[in-house]
Design goal:
Layout lengths: L2 E6 L4 H11 L7 E6 L5 E6 L2 H11 L7 E7 L14 E2 L5 E9 L2 H10 L10 H12 L9 H5 L9 H10 L3 E9 L2 E10 L4 E4 L4 E4 L11 E4 L4 E6 L2 E6 H6 L17 E2 L15 H7 L1 H9 L3 E2 L9 E2 L2 H4 L12 H6 L3 E6 L2 H17 L3 E5 H4 L10 E7 L5 H12 L3 E6 L5 H5 L2 E4 L12 H20 L5 H35 L5 E6 L3 H16 L2 E6 L17 E4 L7 H15 L20 H4 L1 H4 L10 H5 L6 H34 L9 H17 L3 H13 L6 H22 L6 H32 L6 H13 L1 H18 L20 H28 L1 H12 L6 H39 L25 H4 L5 H10 L1
Parallel strand pairs: 17-18, 17-19, 19-20, 20-21, 22-23, 22-24
Antiparallel strand pairs: 1-4, 1-10, 2-3, 2-4, 5-6, 6-7, 7-8, 8-12, 9-10, 9-11, 11-14, 12-13, 15-16
């Protein structure tokens, strides 16, 4: 998941490195850093977003000036995501810097040996080991070389170049790596190497780039060299040399290692444009890639399936990558397609989403080509001893073409001389080079972490392969082949029409189905892989637990997991042989777990060729992922199917927050009412003295913790006629108000973590305390200073009423103004404008800064409201006297009204509004910063939508089916 970029040329490297890291953000990361050549090397790295690093680099200015540098986005494997653990990692003197993707498996043993020789490790990463290891190799101080080969080379290390030193050091490392080194005393050198992790060299005019992904290179050059497994590249401004690590070590000391020849080192042209790696007007990459699926499938079909001009009724399939063997790969002159047709068994090796497309291919090959097919997890296949024959054919499927487990499976198959076929998206990738033949998907770059269009293109490519193989083996007649080809050719157009219809309907689903934390996906036959893919997407994007099962197996144990708020998503087609069984299972579930007629939401699609409807079924599983609706990511990701009982619970849950808040404030009312009514008569029990006593009671009641505070409280309370235990009663009254916010947290549809909730509540609590103290002072002051006849209780009521009504609007406007100031060119600190967002994970320092901003705004708000009261003091006094004058003869009742009842009513509104505002702003910030793998979701109900042109459902289900339109109307009426 990490990203690497390196630059050497004549331009300032820092800005190029930062831009490249932004291109690599989609891969997922938790920290980022850059290293620029200098004496010593200039390294800047920050945990968190690339924007944090960009800000740090901007402040550093000319301190990070240079024309050679490396950059990295890190996803933590060894060590926590901290500044220290971010890459680049350096030696103690900052003379060598390295960035690294992958894992060094023998890291502990190598670190122990280096530590015994006095090397100090300051980070928890395995990458720092590489820098120290190269330094030690350079100094010829490595006494315990791992194997005899390197032991023999020890004497030859003297005078070795950096390229030879790096190659020798990497020979000691076990595991996977993609690395880039820079050196303090080499201002014109970058060394890169790969083993199990991809690297691409970009070739420019007087400059070169090295990256782990083409998206970081495309805006600089389209001429690239794909490094092969086990290769090292030495890059200088004048050119580059590529060679195998083994050859470099073998020629050590002889100065005889030779790079690949030009014919073995082809510079290829990237079939990629800058527009393809940008959002193009969509909210996020995943939505763009979902909507791009029809075009991607057309690209996968283009030139491979066509109708001859002279025979328009006939369809032809041409798969150039299978009909002609690679040079030197076929000894008997037979094409890969012919070998494939004569294979005794097809073995599909894949991981993740590609494994699900392989399962669909298994059904297709067995039915259309009449050949035995098996599907294997590449990660499991490589670690056992499978029985592979020379007559077998292994089909490796991978979007990137760099999946390490799949590459190992290919090597095993080649060891047994089996035919290997690759189906990949990335041109020139390792799988494309290692296999005997294959197909490119031509789906275009897939930036979103969760695969969407690559999955559908894999299914299209494999169906084409199955049809071509069926024709080659004589299983399909000409008539059947023409029918299948016509149906397959119509799939992109059908999906394009259907996606536009799904957009609105899945938005409706995503609005309501979001409460479940678990889900079960179910399908039969070829739809079982579709169910698995839906479950995988739900886990990948929403972090919601989901599992896929064959429909008939749900009754065998999995049925015990079905509860309310655990939706069961069924994928089926009426043409399936198992359709009746699936329909019966749905009825059984509804009868067993649903009360009454639960709404059954269906997705339907236009009729297309029967064999390829499964191609469309995945679309409802993708589409609701893209709807955020402005209400927060996590909330919208929880999109599920609801029974009637669940729908009723959803309606009740909408009222629960209000009920909770009212109940808890009633508790506060009871506590405060008891507190006031327990005031003992004293020499003076006027409203003013009671007001002062109550103010002291509230303040000390919130901070009383021990006997000292209790004695202080007893002294102050006794002067106002308040008993010494009144502070605790008030304390519990205020606690009840805070508990109301606890209740709101548990009833929010997007439940905040406790730490975030505490930060939000602390803002409101400090604001309430500050308002209370200022209102007490203003009330006493207005009664003395203003020439208006009104007692302090009236002034307190006026100030509090303004705080909880007009003050809320003023705070909102002031906060907006502050955000505009932070985002302005004068300040240029947009990260400070994210109110309610405290970092990931939440940081106390960010909270403290926001708290100071918040209190500053409260102070400005109070100044504005005080000015308003002073300017309209006569009108305010008349209003308060008219509303509260009838209570002048009942001082205790007046205190209850002013200090309890009115705060109860107004604080319900003020606290609720402020908390919801803070939560909404935090969700907005999360939406802006969220990884592409999180800005999406999964639908709860997969079946069919109900467009107007489609026929009605089966008659026996008609009574229990609601269309989306009917469902929406019923929700509005309810």
């Amino acid at each position: 998941m990490c990203g690497i970029f390196a630059y050497i040329g004549n331009r300032e490297a820092a800005s190029l490195l930062i831009t490249a890291l932004k291109r690599l953000e989609y891969r997922g990361y938790d920290s980022a850093g850059i290293g620029i050549h200098g004496v010593p090397l200039k390294v800047r790295k920050k945990a968190g977003k690339v924007s944090n690093l960009e800000e740090d680099v901007a402040h550093a200015g000319t301190q990070v000036s240079g024309t050679l540098g490396i950059a990295h986005t890190r996803w933590a494997t060894h060590g926590k995501p901290t500044d220290c653990n971010a890459h680049p990692q350096t030696t103690a003197e900052s003379s060598i810097a390295v960035v690294h993707n992958g894992v060094i498996e023998n890291y502990a043993a190598l670190k122990e040996q280096l530590s015994s020789k006095g090397y100090k490790f300051v980070s928890q990463t395995d990458t720092e080991l590489l820098a120290h290891l190269v330094q030690d190799m350079q100094a010829v101080r490595w006494p315990n070389l791992r194997d005899c080969l390197l032991q023999d080379l020890k004497k030859q290390m003297e005078g070795a170049t950096y390229t030879e030193v790096v190659a020798t050091a990497l020979r000691l490392c076990e595991g996977a790596y993609g690395v880039a080194f820079i050196f303090q005393d080499e201002p014109d050198l970058i060394i890169g190497a790969r083993k199990g992790s991809p690297l691409i060299l970009g070739v420019g005019h007087g400059e070169h780039m090295l990256a782990s992904d083409a998206s970081a290179i495309i805006e600089h050059t389209k001429d690239v060299v794909y490094l092969r497994e086990g290769e090292l590249v030495e890059i200088r401004r004048s050119g580059f040399k590529v060679s195998e690590l083994q050859k470099i070590v073998s020629g050590l000391g002889k100065n005889s290692w030779s790079p690949r020849k030009d014919g073995e080192n082809p510079i290829v042209r990237l079939e990629l444009s800058l527009e393809q790696i940008e959002k193009g007007g969509f909210k996020h990459f995943m939505l763009k890639e979902i909507m791009d699926q029809p075009n991607a499938m057309r690209n996968a079909l283009r030139g491979r399936i066509y109708q001859p001009v002279d025979m328009p009724e006939k369809w032809e399939i041409k798969l150039g990558g299978l009909e002609k063997a690679k040079e030197g790969r076929s000894s008997d002159g037979t094409s890969p397609l012919e070998r494939m047709a004569n294979s005794s068994r097809l073995i599909f090796a894949a991981c993740g989403t590609s494994w699900h497309s392989s399962l669909i291919a298994k059904y297709a090959f067995e039915k259309l080509a009449g050949v035995t097919a098996e599907v294997e997890y590449a990660s499991e296949f490589r670690y056992r001893k499978p029985l592979i024959c020379k007559s077998d054919c292994l089909i490796a499927i991978s979007q990137s073409g760099e999946t390490a487990d799949t590459l190992e499976a290919i090597k095993m198959a080649k060891h047994y001389q089996a035919l290997t076929i690759g189906v990949v998206n990335v041109v020139g990738s390792s799988i494309a080079r290692e296999t005997d033949a294959g197909m490119y998907l031509h789906a275009g770059p897939e930036i979103g972490v969760a695969s969407t269009k690559a999955f559908t293109c894999q299914v299209v490519a494999l169906l084409l392969m199955a049809l071509r193989l069926g024709k080659q083996r004589g299983v399909l007649s000409e008539t059947m082949l023409n029918s299948y080809c016509a149906a397959l050719n119509s799939v992109p157009d059908s999906i394009e029409r259907w996606l536009s219809a799904l957009t609105d309907q899945t938005r409706v689903v995503s609005k309501y189905f979001r409460l479940a934390t678990n889900a079960i996906f179910s399908g039969m036959g070829i739809h079982y892989p579709v169910a698995l893919e839906g479950a995988l997407k739900l886990k990948e994007i929403s972090y919601i637990h989901a599992e896929g099962f064959p429909a008939s197996e749900i009754r065998h144990g999995s049925i015990t997991l079905v509860r309310n708020f655990v939706p069961v998503i069924c994928v089926a087609m009426r043409s399936d042989p198992a359709y009746e069984d699936m329909k019966q299972m749905v009825k059984d579930f509804r009868d067993s777990f649903c009360e009454g007629k639960s709404p059954v939401c269906l997705f339907r699609y236009r009729k297309i060729g029967k064999p390829f409807r499964d191609q469309l079924q995945i679309e409802p599983l993708h589409m609701p992922e893209s709807h955020d609706g402005g209400t927060g990511v996590r909330l919208l990701l929880r999109q599920k199917q609801m029974t009637k009982a669940t729908a009723e619970r959803e309606a009740v849950m909408a009222l629960v927050p209000v009920l909770f808040n009212s109940a808890f404030h009633c508790c506060a009312l009871a506590c405060q009412f008891w507190n006031i009514m327990s005031i003992t008569p004293a020499r003076s029990c006027e409203p003013r003295s009671n007001l002062v006593a109550f103010a002291c009671l509230v303040f000390l009641g919130t901070v009383s913790r021990d006997g000292v505070n209790r004695r202080m409280g007893s002294y102050v309370w006794s002067t106002g006629g308040v008993p010494s235990d009144g502070g605790y009663k008030s304390f519990w009254g205020l606690s009840a108000r805070l508990v109301s916010l606890v209740g709101k947290r548990f009833t929010d549809k997007v439940r905040r973590p406790w730490k975030v909730w505490f930060f939000d509540t602390a803002k409101q609590g400090t604001q309430a305390l500050m308002n209370h103290i200022i209102n007490i002072g203003l009330s006493m002051g207005f009664g003395e200073w203003l020439s208006v006849d009104a007692d302090p209780c009236n002034w307190y009521w006026i100030n509090m009423s303004l705080d909880c009504t007009l003050g809320v609007g003023i705070m909102f406007l002031l906060l907006r103004l502050l955000q505009c100031v932070y985002r302005s060119k004068l300040v240029a600190r947009p990260e400070l404008a994210r109110c309610g967002h405290y970092g990931d994970p939440p940081d106390f320092k960010i909270f403290l800064r926001q708290l100071l901003d918040w209190q500053a705004l409260v102070f400005v708000q109070k100044l504005m409201l005080a000015a308003l009261v002073i300017n309209f003091r006569a009108s305010m006094a008349l209003i308060s006297t008219a509303l509260l004058g009838w209570l002048d003869d009942f001082p205790r009742a007046k205190l209850v009204v002013v200090m309890v009842l009115m705060p109860l009513i107004l604080n319900v509104f003020a606290l609720w509004t402020a908390d919801s505002f803070l939560q909404a702003k935090a969700n907005d910030c999360d939406e802006v910063q969220v990884r592409e793998s999180l800005v999406a979701g999964i639908p709860a109900v997969v079946g069919r939508d109900v467009p107007a042109f489609h026929a009605q459902a089966d008659e026996d289900l008609e009574d229990s089916i609601m269309s989306f339109q009917e469902w929406k109307r019923s929700r509005r009426q309810a």
